[in-house]
UniProtKB/TrEMBL annotation:
GO terms for molecular function: protein C-terminal S-isoprenylcysteine carboxyl O-methyltransferase activity. Keywords: Membrane, Methyltransferase, Transferase, Transmembrane, Transmembrane helix. This is Methyltransferase family protein. Its EC number is 2.1.1.100, 2.1.1.334. PANTHER family: PROTEIN-S ISOPRENYLCYSTEINE O-METHYLTRANSFERASE, PROTEIN-S-ISOPRENYLCYSTEINE O-METHYLTRANSFERASE. Its main location: membrane. It comes from Tropicimonas aquimaris. The chain crosses the membrane at residues 41-58, 94-120. It is a multi-pass membrane protein. InterPro entries: Phopholipid_MeTrfase. It is found in: Endomembrane system.
Length: 151
């Protein structure tokens, strides 16, 4: 079980979903749309997702808590990007996936985005939220009531 927890990491899930989208884009291409608008959208999604992840990690490090899954938080972070999303790192992952799908014109792979979000919720978010509820009680309940899980 310890080995599974070691490889059960969000970046690896993201890589799997990115690889699936890339395979679809290369092996089963559909109407490629490369316009300045799609290029801009892809760039904003990828860049914004990476920036969101970086800002969230910095915030967590400043608050001396872990950003690693499968570990209890030492401190509760509710300000900054965490005031807008309970899971800004996972949201950033989904944005990067969506941006790459747009960049590659892998339109059938759009179905992978909600599937990725479901996997991340099931594999990580539900466990993390249970731990936060257990560790921080009413403080977590208040934050969860006013802050959406994804966006």
């Amino acid at each position: 079980m310890a080995f599974w927890k070691w490889i059960d990491l969000p970046p690896l899930w993201l890589l799997l979903f990115v690889a699936l989208a890339r395979v679809q884009a290369v092996r089963l291409p559909v109407g490629v749309i490369n316009t300045p608008v799609t290029d801009l959208l892809a760039g904003l999604l990828i860049g914004g997702g990476l920036l969101l992840m970086a800002v969230a990690v910095v915030q967590m490090r400043q608050n001396r808590t872990t950003f690693m899954p499968h570990q209890h938080a030492r401190h509760f972070v509710t300000n900054g990007v965490f005031a807008r999303s309970r899971n800004p790192i996972y949201l950033g992952d989904a944005m990067v996936l969506l941006g790459l799908i747009v960049h590659w014109s892998a339109w059938p792979s759009l179905v992978l985005v909600p599937l990725f979000m479901w996997v991340i919720t099931d594999r990580f978010i539900l466990e993390e939220e249970a731990w936060l509820r257990e560790d921080f009680g009413p403080q977590w309940e208040q934050w969860a009531a006013r802050t959406r899980r994804w966006l």
